[in-house]
């Protein structure tokens, strides 16, 4: 009897019951699902390079060089040369870092010099 006081109902199984996979009496095959995720394309840092070009160009033209390498990286990515795109993108990133650091130091020196007077 269940909690309501009625006898339990029995429902016959439809078809043949094979048990759980891997258990005795069941099938021993195991199914795997493989998900292939394409690798993320290399970054070209074009926006950062444009900012460096417009704001950091007095620093030995590092902004212009970074912009050129970013465009080369984007071109390589379009034609499918991911290794070349990664190489050019990495160079653009390094040039952007140098340009940003140098401009930051120059701005800091200008503020300090203005504060001293």
Automatic annotation (TrEMBL):
It is found in: Membrane. GO terms for cellular component: plasma membrane. Its main location: membrane. InterPro entries: CD225/Dispanin_fam, IFITM_antiviral_protein. Keywords: Membrane, Transmembrane, Transmembrane helix. It comes from the Eukaryota. The chain crosses the membrane at residues 46-69, 95-116. Pfam families: CD225 (PF04505). Belongs to the CD225/Dispanin family. This is Uncharacterized protein. It comes from Pogonophryne albipinna.
